[in-house]
TrEMBL record:
Belongs to the multicopper oxidase family. Residues 30-142, 156-308, 544-678 form the Plastocyanin-like domain. SUPFAM superfamilies: Cupredoxins. InterPro entries: Cu-oxidase-like_N, Cu-oxidase_2nd, Cu-oxidase_C, Cu-oxidase_fam, Cu_oxidase_CS, Cu_oxidase_Cu_BS, Cupredoxin, CuRO_1_LCC. One of its GO terms (biological process) is lignin catabolic process. This is laccase. It comes from the Eukaryota. It comes from Rhynchospora pubera. PANTHER family: LACCASE, MULTI-COPPER OXIDASE.
Length: 696
């Protein structure tokens, strides 16, 4: 019997190894001319593409990506959401797990995807390069397995970005020089394009051709620098099926909300048979709950256009479709993948169809008014949201007990149940000369204007709470426990007083700051934190990050003492034993402005037990914890003047950054880092550093 079990186990491992692939890519980081908003600018890109190449792999595959830095800036790359089990050297944050790749140098990232599938992304993790250095990272199920929902025939990577007319690096440097918050962006983008409501932009607006009756999945990624974003699709219902590469209990919603760094997979459906030529806007704009804080109030759009079915049947998941064809089919569980979106790519097994297809653009004129499903003819350009959808009252805690329902009753008259859509390449040539490959060859100048969806108001906290409450795991989960580390971290903004005889750009002649537990995080410059930890180099950091605030106060009150507004600058880390079960209360503050903070943890995923408003009170709020089916995330929005509670197991040795994914906050210190010690044996020990690890 034991021999039989051993044989079966061996065959299972052999099957897995045979079908796992190694994907080789070369990423050239370089300055590229990019035309947006009527002007051509030099922007940093990967392989001349904005957004950058889409990476595709399966659960169990290995990625080897050589990054060559031909830009004038230091650079690193981060594979957002990848656990990096034992491979912290490949995680990427500058001066945390590696020194930067200097201009003219290179570094090869090597990691294996273990137990993950869904939508993630990659981006620069050095200065503000990620404004244009980012792309999708899509992980499909292993061969022989499938999605836990009806398999879509079409998959659309939808990257939400942010665009400045000025060089983003100069925007950052101005803020660093003056002490003021960075200037707000000039536009949001969908797959690199601002959309129809901006000058010189309508000819390149992203268009997704679809056919009636096809199931399609939008893989939505918020790659914006400093803004959470609401997104909606006119004339369609969205069913959320995954978030941050973790499957969720399906629920329908008229809109989704993503903080920077977060991803959401949705199936979209049409309530009726739309004829060929029907067009609908995908629209997105900011969510900003902090009163008085400037933000980009523009609306970006893309278009869903119903076209004739493509030559390759969307239901033939084994069809060999050219990667440049608009009808390219996303690989299902029984299809190989060809990572054809990079300059140089190879795999250890035969090439196979990619989800990638060229984004179609159309030559069309923008009408003087835009029809919408709920707003009568808003003017163009549209810089203010359509009227807010009404909603029921939302309780303070957004993590109610588990319920089997798959649909939320958010009041929106434009919601209908049903079906689906189709695949596009999210990376487009940065010069804007996209192929006018619109799926049906029609003249879009004579088509009617698309319908515009309603979006929640910019400050609709009820809508934000409604959406967050809908994200749950598909079923009961086995939470890590018992808890061995209970931590309480304040997260928020602050101010430093301006030195004498100097004029500073912050409020009332101050300098913008941010902190966790009153520590404003400072990156080292001589060694990375991981190098210092691994080689026991003294003087780079201290391991005394406070487990709770040094001073307790009314964190979300309106009249917080000025003596609390200036944090201590330091490089403090918190040490964890391998296997520790960590529960953290992330408490937002109102020292300067009670903004929402999307907190991202590297090297781990965590369960979100609850979120709520006001000050966390264990006497009452512990009873609100969802201990049945909490969602698994890598980034969580801590509500404005509110809190979130997360739990994870520290089972990945290395140094792992935890930070706000709003780069305007990260750059002034809203971060900390954990040291997870090695466990016992090779499988619980970090791998040795690679030979080509950059030096500081």
């Amino acid at each position: 019997m034991n021999l039989l079990l051993s044989t079966l186990l061996g065959l299972s491992i052999l099957f897995t190894c045979i079908h796992a692939e190694v994907h080789y890519h070369e990423f050239v980081i370089e300055a590229t001319p990019v035309k947006r908003l009527c002007k051509t600018h030099m922007r940093i890109t990967v392989n001349g593409m904005y957004p950058g190449p889409t990476l595709e792999a399966r659960n169990g595959d290995t990625m080897i990506i050589k990054a060559i830095n031909h830009s004038p800036y230091n650079a690193t790359l981060h594979w957002h959401g990848i656990r990096q089990t034992r491979t912290a050297w490949a995680d990427g944050p500058e001066f945390v797990t590696q020194c930067p790749i200097r201009p003219g140098q290179s570094y090869t990232y090597r990691f294996t995807i273990e137990g993950q599938e869904g939508t993630l992304w990659w981006h620069a993790h050095s200065s503000w390069l990620r404004a244009t250095v980012h792309g999708a990272l899509i992980i499909y199920p292993k061969l022989g397995t499938s999605y836990p929902f009806p398999k879509p025939q079409r998959e659309l990577p939808v990257l939400l970005g942010e665009w400045w007319k000025r060089d983003p690096i100069s925007v950052l440097r101005q803020a660093q020089r003056t002490g003021a918050p960075p200037n707000i962006s000039d536009a949001f983008t969908i797959n690199g394009q601002p959309g129809d409501f901006f000058k010189c932009s309508s000819q390149e607006t992203t268009v997704f051709p679809v056919s009636h009756g096809e199931t399609a999945m939008l893989r939505v990624i918020n790659a914006a620098m400093n803004n959470e974003l609401f997104l909606s699709v006119a004339g369609h219902t969205m069913t959320v099926v995954a978030a941050d590469a973790a499957y969720t209990k399906p629920f329908t919603t008229p809109f989704i909300l993503l903080g920077p760094g977060q991803t959401t997979d949705v199936l979209i459906s049409a309530p009726v048979h739309y004829p060929v030529g029907s067009r609908f806007y995908i629209a997105a704009h900011a969510y900003s709950a902090a009163p008085g804080i400037p933000f980009d109030n523009t609306t970006t759009t893309a278009i869903i256009e119903y076209s004739h079915p493509t030559a390759a049947s969307p239901f033939d998941t084994n069809a060999n479709v050219d990667a440049g064809s608009i009808g390219a089919v996303a690989p299902a569980a029984d299809v190989n993948i060809e990572a054809s979106t990079t300059a140089t790519t190879a795999t250890t097994s035969p090439p196979i169809p990619s989800i990638s297809a060229t984004i179609a653009t159309t030559n069309r004129q923008i009408p003087s008014t835009i029809a919408t499903t709920s707003v009568a003819n808003p003017p163009v350009p549209l810089t203010v949201a359509p009227t807010a959808t009404t909603n029921p009252s939302i309780p303070a805690s957004t993590a109610p007990a588990s319920s089997p329902s798959t649909e939320n009753n958010y009041d929106n008259n434009n919601v209908n149940p049903a079906s689906n859509i189709q695949s596009n390449k999210c990376a487009v040539p940065s010069n804007g000369n996209n192929n006018n490959n619109n799926g049906n060859g029609g003249n879009h100048n004579v088509l009617p204007p698309p319908l515009l969806p309603p979006l929640p108001a910019f400050n609709d906290t009820g809508a934000a709470a409604f959406f967050s409450a809908g994200i749950k795991s598909p079923g009961p989960v086995e939470l890590p426990g018992p808890v061995t580390e209970r931590l309480f971290f304040t997260v928020g903004l602050g101010l430093y007083f301006c030195p004498p005889s100097i004029r500073c750009g912050g409020p009332n002649n101050t300098i913008f700051a941010a902190s966790m537990n009153n520590v404003s995080f400072v990156l080292p410059q001589t060694f990375s934190l991981l190098q210092a930890h691994h080689f026991k180099i003294p003087g780079v950091f201290t391991a005394d990050f406070p487990p709770y605030p040094p001073i307790q106060f009314d964190y979300t009150g309106n009249n917080i003492s000025r003596s609390l507004q200036s944090p201590v600058k330091a490089t403090k880390l918190y040490q964890l034993k391998f296997g520790s079960v960590v529960e953290i209360v992330l408490q937002g503050t109102n020292i300067f402005a009670g903004e929402e903070h999307p907190m991202h943890l590297h090297g781990h995923e965590f369960y979100v037990l609850a979120t709520g408003t006001g000050n966390f009170d264990p006497r009452w709020d512990v009873s609100k914890f969802n201990l049945v089916d909490p969602p698994l995330r890598n980034t969580i929005g801590v509500p404005a003047r509110g809190w979130a509670v997360i739990r994870f197991e520290a089972n990945n040795p290395g140094v792992w950054l935890m930070h706000c994914h709003i780069d305007a906050h990260l750059g002034v210190g809203l971060a900390m880092a954990f040291i997870t010690e090695n466990g016992f044996g090779e499988l619980e020990t970090i791998e040795p550093p690679p030979a080509d690890l950059p030096v500081c």
